Amino acid sequence: MIEFQQVHKAYTVQGRQIPALQPTDLHVRRGEVFGLIGHSGAGKSTLLRLINRLEEPSGGRIIINGIEVTALDANGLRSFRRSVGMIFQHFNLLASKTVAENIAMPMKLAGGHGSADIAQRVRELLVRVGLSEHAQKYPAQLSGGQKQRVGIARALATGPDILLCDEATSALDPQTTAQVLQLLAEINRELGLTIVLITHEMDVIRRVCDRVGVMDGGVIVELGDVADVFLHPQHPTTISFVQESEDDDFVTDEDWQQVQGSIVRLTFLGESTYAPVLGRVARETGIDYSILAGRIGRIKDQPCGQLTVALSGSESQALAAREQLQAAGVTLEVIRA
Ligand SMILES: Nc1ncnc2c1ncn2[C@@H]1O[C@H](COP(=O)(O)OP(=O)(O)OP(=O)(O)O)[C@@H](O)[C@H]1O
Which domains does the chain have, with CATH numbers? Predict the structure, then answer.
């Protein structure tokens, strides 16, 4: 759907080249929610804005729905942009226009829509984002969450099949963030829109994304299904994001010096999260566990849990326990043999 082939970008400031995106290959699949996470300056906004050519690439090809976007002239680009909606951190609403007028704006600018058509479409969009009561209000009369809902309705006005979200929830409190993310998930599911979002919060990725790319220094350093990346982070940047998103302090190697036996991390995903596996394996093998760290939660629609445990028992009991856990669909990583 969205294909980057060796796309790179450097900004020129006072004759100096500032690299923002190193040559990047990327494939975003149709209908997925794809998240990019990275610290400030990692290159997320640059990558996002290259998709609809709000930034011009320094090189490489961008192909979307079979159209080589990097080869379009001004007319081609204008009509292509109707298939890409965008929402922003600070909403970018026109303060002097009502909610309904803000939402109608992209259709007016595109031309070719009668006023009855536009009014009907605005009504539908207001229902979709839950703001029917607020059509005649001005942005200043709305909460942050409501403003972002207007932003979403406006982005959907021209019937795009891609929605780009530029830190769309960064200015919102946690509860409002959850509601806006839920709305984005609904739009993805019900309208089949492909969503690309950027964020610096792992929690946003965990709640709504199917796949994630982790960016650092203009490079996507890790990419994969959210469950894989979140539960088994490989790159130091990813590991630091996952640790930041934990509520508890991470257990350190020093803490582990105090416990006997081998230490393993068990990951439960989907159905295995609720199965009474640990008790059964303990009974059948005679092994015992000390729990060193644990968390349980959801990744998008799937329950998941992770436990770090010390196994105490004989070597053959520990081996049998590991085999039984793996046979029950639990992923097992040995932290200390
Ligand atoms: N218009 C610009 N002119 C010059 N340099 C820029 C411009 N936009 C971004 N940069 C630089 O490019 C690099 C990548 O910036 P970018 O905004 O893409 O990162 P980001 O991950 O989105 O960061 P943030 O979360 O702070 O927005 C940074 O070094 C930044 O300073």
Answer: 2-244 (3.40.50.300), 253-336 (3.30.70.260)
